[in-house]
Amino acid sequence: MARPKESDSAKTHKQIVEAALELLREKRDPSFLSMRRVAARAGLSPSTLQYYFTSKEALLEACLDGYHERLSLRVKAALTAVATTSDTRRMVEATLRSFIAFIREEELLVALRVMTTARRGGLHPSRQAEFLGSFVREAVALLGQHSALEPLEARLLIHGLTLSLPRILLMSPEEQAGLHGKHDIPSQAELDDALVRIVLRILKH
Fold this sequence. Notes:
The chain is mainly α. Helix content is 77%, strand content 0%. It is built from 11 helices and no strands. The longest helix is centred in the middle third of the chain and has 22 residues, at 125-146.
């Protein structure tokens, strides 16, 4: 497809992504997004949108770029903190609470990440080297210094947490009522504390 005349590639790309993010924030439902709706919100023709994003999947992945940049910074900060402490219990708790806070702050995009990963059957290839490779290897090495876990156990624990924490923290009120009983739904703080205690028990700290 030919490049639209008089187009500023970077500006138009940003315009499209911002339009998609606006719709996501308004509707809070990734399934609502369509290429036609995003084109209309961005003030562009469907053919122009198609030039920049050949599929809805590609557009949704672009919407997650900023989220992954912020997640990368959070991971790097956590790994740096872990490397400079000998207090395992405090380290684990601080790291977990940092990521729980991140999930709550980025709730909409975390939900989008979960949905797109489930739809693809795995994390997008462009994200795997960093988030399934280098970061996990470094985390496993550091965790090995603070626990009796074998490398495979540490890797499975890390992967398990990255998969389960978002799902647990993003449960709907109806799901929480079904899980906990209508009269026994924990507050956010109680749920956070319980998740931290579970991981500390796994690590025997």
